[in-house]
Amino acid sequence: MNLEIFDIFECWDHRSRFEAKVSFFNRTDFKDFSFFSQILDSLSSRDDGKFNFENDLEERFEFTKKTQETEFQRFMNSSEQMDIVLTIDKKIIDGKQSIYFFDSFIKHLIGKQVAETMSYFHNLFSNECERIFFEILDPNISEFNLHTGSIYFGTSSSESDNRFNRISKLFKVKNASSFYNLDNYELLPDDFHVSTAYPKNDSTRDLKKYFKKIEMILSIIYVSASSRIDERRLYYQINDVANTHIVSLNNDLAYNPVIFEIYNWIYSTDSYIDKSSIARSVFEYLAAEIIDSDDSVIRGIQKAYNIYIKDKVSVYLDAKKELSSYIIESLSSLKRYPNAILDTFLKNLYAISGFFFSVILANVISERELDKIFTNDILVIIIIALIGSFIFWGISNYKFSVDLQNFKDIFKTLKNNYREVLLDNELDTIFGNIKLDDEIIKVKTFKKKVNCVWGSLLFISMAVTIIVLLKGK
Fold first, then answer.
1. pLDDT average, residue stretch 210-228
2. C-alpha span between 335 and 255 (Å, rounded)
3. CB-facing half-sphere around the CA of 253: CA atoms within 13 A
4. Distance CA 172, CA 167 (A)
5. Which residues pair with 19 in a beta bridge?
6. CA–CA separation, 6 vs 459, rounded Å?
7. Three-state secondary structure along the chain?
8. How far, in Å, CA of 209 to CA of 53, rounded?
9. What is the pLDDT of residues 245-256, one digit of tens each?
10. Cβ contact 9:21 at 8 Å
11. How many CB atoms lie within 10 A of CB 283?
């Protein structure tokens, strides 16, 4: 199309019609025959275009590809003023439709309500088309490509590699879900799932955002058990007996890619009936809405499906048994830990006490006087022994702290390792009932009490020994 038309005419490109209007008030502004004929000749062979002229006497003239120049000149000479309207009726042939004014087309498309746009694309696919290609013939657009699984916007006729069997997938969603308006909106999320989009500009961003909104709405429809839409709202039930959820189609919905992932996971294989039932059961079990899905939901759905598969049942039961046994054993060890702390303290106490008694006993046997038993040398040895006890006390406390932290780390690692087999809610319930932090607090409280006694004895012993040593000097 001639670039000059966009400078002279006021143009609109709707979904099925292109229109351009201009009014000339001076004969010198009139364009010649070749200007109009070249514009019509540049149109796609799919489309029908014509100019309608009207002069100030309200006389009309229709200009088509068959119009003769003499007829044109005779009418143009009839007046000093002229209103001109270009109308192009755009047809879809072999799944292709023309776009002559790209920015206007996109603005008009995304400005419509979602339900109306879905109806428009439903009508396009109803013409026995598996793919829809919007051929951009706007001379202002040198390069543009946006591809989904079945819809293509481009300046060339190249198609995306992200193709899918649309008929097969429509058959699946019809079997696994009940969409009341399917006859009016026979569409799939794949139709609007953008795989390629360039260059990065406002038109690309706006169209992609709009398509994502439709993709998410359709994904919700086919993940749920039953649904219907009107012009402004989507109503859906996760299960046939569940509450009805309402989503406003006119709100600026935040795109949630997880919903399409769940839909794609369900319908990507022939087990879609089982998968859809399990997915809905998990949503009901989690008391979650589809629109609020996150990664934990899709993980839960996949794990529930793995459990459902017969050869996974034994793995599931063995995993629960192993986990329970390990937890019981670990908790038993943790409950016995105060005894280990007390035992360490007593061993140190026995060692110091044994040292004192051996010194006293040795001197008693040698018949030395009691006041001469604790000589300066003996007192120095006692101080060294007490310093060793202090070091042993510190090392023991460090070991206790590391052991308690290891308990916490082991349980955290254990929980992560079983995420592939058990549902997150099951893990949360199992580990929530353990109350590991409460048990660790009990151990720490007991350790503090032992430390108070242990530390007091060591400090008192050290103080007394040093005082006796100083007096002896």
1. 94
2. 49
3. 25
4. 9
5. 12, 87
6. 96
7. CCCHHHHHCEEEECCCEEEEEEEECCHHHCCCHHHHHHHHHCCCCCCEEEEEEEECCCCEEEECCCCCHHHHHHHHCCCCCEEEEEEEECCCECCEEEECCHHHHHHHHHCCCHHHHHHHHHHHHCCCCCCEEEEECCCCCCCCEEECCCEEEECCCCCCCCCCCHHHHHHHHHHHCEECCCCCCCCCHHHHCCCEEECCCHHHHHHHHHHHHHHHHHHHHHHCCEEEECCCEEEEECCCCCCEEEEECCCCCCCCHHHHHHHHHHHCCCCHHHHHHHHHHHHHHHCCCHHHCCHHHHHHHHHHHHHHCHHHHHHHHHHHHHHHHHHHHHHHHHHCHHHHHHHHHHHHHHHHHHHHHHHHHHHHHCCCCHHHCCCHHHHHHHHHHHHHHHHHHHHHHHHHHHHHHHHHHHHHHHHHHCCCCCCHHHHHHHHHHHCHHHHHHHHHHHHHHHHHHHHHHHHHHHHHHHHHHHHHC
8. 40
9. 888 887 678 889
10. yes
11. 24
**Overall average pLDDT of the 63-68 stretch:** 94
pTM > 0.90: yes or no: no
Check whether 370 has a pLDDT greater than 60.
Answer: no
Can you state the angle between helices 337-365 and 436-472, rounded to 10 degrees? 20
For residue 328 the two structure tokens come to: 């019981």
Q: What is the CA radius of gyration of the chain?
A: 42
Pull the structure tokens for residue 184: 């009016």
Q: Give the model confidence (pLDDT) of 376-421 as tens digits.
A: 666 677 777 777 777 776 777 777 777 777 767 776 766 666 665 5
What length is written for the chain?
473
Q: Which residue has the higher pLDDT, 93 or 162?
A: 93
**What local confidence, expressed as pLDDT, does residue 283 receive?**
86
Q: Are 21 and 85 in contact (CB under 8 A)?
A: yes
Q: What is the pLDDT of residues 337-347, one digit of tens each?
A: 666 666 766 66
| Nearest one of 178, 250, 227 to 235, comparing CA atoms | 227
List the chain domain ranges.
Answer: 4-89, 96-308, 318-472
State the Cα–Cα distance between residues 130 and 190, nearest whole angstrom: 12
Strand 196-198 versus strand 145-147 pairing type:
antiparallel
Distance CA 38, CA 378 (A): 119
Q: What pLDDT shows up at residue 127?
A: 72
Q: What is the mean pLDDT of the chain?
A: 81
Q: Is the pLDDT of residue 446 over 80?
A: no
Give percent above pLDDT 90 in the chain: 34
